[in-house]
Amino acid sequence: MDAEIKNFIKVWITAITSLCYCYYVVARIPRGMMRLLFLLPVFYLFTMLPCNLNSLHLGAPTAFFLGWLGNFKLLLFAFDQGPLSPPLPKLLHFVSIACLPIKLKQDPPPNTKNNKNPSHKCTPKSHNPTKMTRSMLLVIKALFLAMIIRAYDHRSNLHPYVILALYCCHTYLAVEIVLALAAAPVQAIFGFEIEPQFNEPYFATSLQDFWGHRWNLMVTSILRPTVYIPIRCISANVIGSRWAALPAIISTFIVSGLAHEVIYFYFTRVHPTWEVTWFFVLHGACTAIEVVVKKAVTNRWRLHRAISGPLTIVFVAVTGGWLFFPQLTRNGVDIKVIKEYSILFDFVKVNLPLHLPLGKS
């Protein structure tokens, strides 16, 4: 465990040093292919650094933050787009935005219907009920995650469908909690107002709603400018604007699937079997069909959310059991995750003992 933590520190020191190079050197190079060329060594480093970590709870966030989000943000940065585009923020802000799952909340323009405070005066943080509610929900979700982890002690007596349900809930809760914890220090230190990374995906009423507005919104915000918008613009010139969204949707899901294959390689260190890519291809195709159907029946017929909501969640869970989880369970990743929780608990118990004051008689 100690060696893994040392590797973790080395990985992030290397990543931060690379981002300093981007800030002080690459940012001075004219945008376009020349700047992209100077970023290639950083792309390589960000892709390879997670291979130095074996722990899933340290390696998985690192792979996601650097190998996926970091590389895509720097790709946009090469062309002065995305969250790192000029005017450049301060160095610490640049590093935080580049390698952490945060998206700064944009204030609406003054005197618009979305801006209830045209003077742009900041509301004191202590009077922000939304933030307080999110914090309370996060605590409740952490308790649910602890209950799920405890339930794994009895997995030999559980039906496979129950285990699948636990894995789905575990994946959602763990990802949301990790992303929130990663963003919290930056938010506290710099006072950033950031967009939430999730928006209660269990309330989704359609696949379009689930993937576009509720699940892992950091990925959505990165894939939209890097894949969806360029493909939609190209498609509009070929097939017209009415249907241009369809190839853009499918292309976005394909890229997401390939990115997940890379993440899965960090988990398993075995050759990909492409099941997770097919999971996202399937969901991309179904989302595209959903968009077509919605356009065809607009204002004429719509499923009630009490029906469409459960159907959406069941579809995601069933296809997840079919295509999303097998690469992980086949290679024992689920067992490794469960074991790491106990190792982490023992590590904390040994290295952070409780020193209780003892009264003298």
Automatic annotation (TrEMBL):
GO MF annotation: an example: O-acyltransferase activity
Subcellular locations according to the entry: Membrane
Entry keywords, A to Z: Acyltransferase, Lipid metabolism, Membrane, Transferase, Transmembrane, Transmembrane helix
Keyword Coiled coil assigned: no
Name used for this protein in its record: Wax synthase domain-containing protein
GO cellular-component term (any): membrane
Membrane spanning stretches: 7-26, 32-51, 135-152, 164-190, 243-267, 273-293, 305-325
Organism the protein comes from: Lithocarpus litseifolius
Family: Belongs to the wax synthase family.
Domain Wax synthase intervals: 195-281
GO biological process, one term: lipid metabolic process
